[in-house]
Amino acid sequence: MRRMLLLEISLASASVAFLAGCNAKGGGVEAGSGSPPAPVVEHEGDSSNYKVEHPEQFTLATAAKYTAVPQLSTTGVVSPDVSRNVPVISLASGRVVEIRARLGDQVTKGQLLMRVQSNDIASAFSDYQHALADEKLATAQLDRAKILYEKGAIALKDLEVAEDIEAKAKVDVATAREHLNVLGADMDHPSALVDIFAPVSGVITEQNVTNAAGVKTLDNSPNLFTISDLSNVWIICDVYENDLPNVHVGEFADIHLAAYPNRVLKGRIDNIGAVLDPNIRTAKVRIQVDNPGILRIGMFVTAIFHGQSSVTYVSVPAAAILHLHDRDWVYVPAGERQFRRVEVQTGEMIPGNAQEVRSGIQPGDRVVANALVLENTLEQ
Known about the structure:
By secondary structure, the protein is α+β, with helices and mostly antiparallel strands. Among the domains are: 49-69 and 310-379, conserved putative lor/sdh protein from methanococcus maripaludis s2 fold, CATH 2.40.420.20; 119-191, Helix Hairpins, CATH 1.10.287. The protein is built from four helices and 24 strands. Strands 1, 2, 4, 19, 20, 21, 22 and 23 form an eight-stranded antiparallel beta sheet that branches. Strands 5-14-17-16-15-18 form a six-stranded antiparallel barrel. A hairpin with a 5-residue loop joins strand 16 (264-276) and strand 17 (282-290). Helix 2 packs antiparallel against helix 3 (156-183).
């Protein structure tokens, strides 16, 4: 009997010790600890759906309507208007003996650019002098023939021959004079030197001649100079094919210059290229701009195209947009304790730390106000 009592006491003590050991190892949650439960995230069926245990931790924002005129911003390069490029040439071949202008100079119409010593001019003057002498002789012979014909000393046919010779001599003189004019010779100062003058006012944008260089005829020879009228220039922009519906001939664009941030110029679209660049899938858009004197050839600019009518978009807080894998996303509620990641197409930033959304969600949709916080929670 005493042995049985001792055995029961031993079993009871062992049970108490076992229970005390379990509590000491932290098998349960201590009451009154106050620590919030860690959020638990689970994937639901679709890989874009996420289930969280405590969705109240993530503030929601409502997508609002945003009305604006669509804009397209592209970069461009200032180029000369090819219709305003005038080549300077010499129809007389020879050797350059003097150059009065250089690349980049501003010149005026009629300004002396260079002088060429030409054998063509010398030969043309020789022909002209011969033609004048022949005309003088033919005129004298005709006067003599008229006197002889009046006195009956010669026949009518002899007078007609003299008239024909005199008429041909006049043609030769006119032809020789025109030849000299075409070559650019000065009729009042016969010389083998020919002066080359600027045909228009503008800036010399190309020079292919130096002192003592040879000037050839027009066959396969470059222009001596090229003068560009830069009072009106072109802005050549590359526009992606997806943006071409927003660009129309006749519309105006704002031109912003990096060198003059406070100046905005207006340009008019006068051509949209019919052929796309096969490598970057862009079309050349040409803008015509009046140059106030600050645009220079080769300068980079930013062109902003404006649409003709306003468009309604959606605006959300900028923090609601998550940029991931080169795409933009937002998180929207998808049922009890669930969020779905939705791809959106964003636009311009809106004053007030908001972001324009062009597709993916509708006005009135609820989105997570800070998508990065939720994304960081999902990655833990």
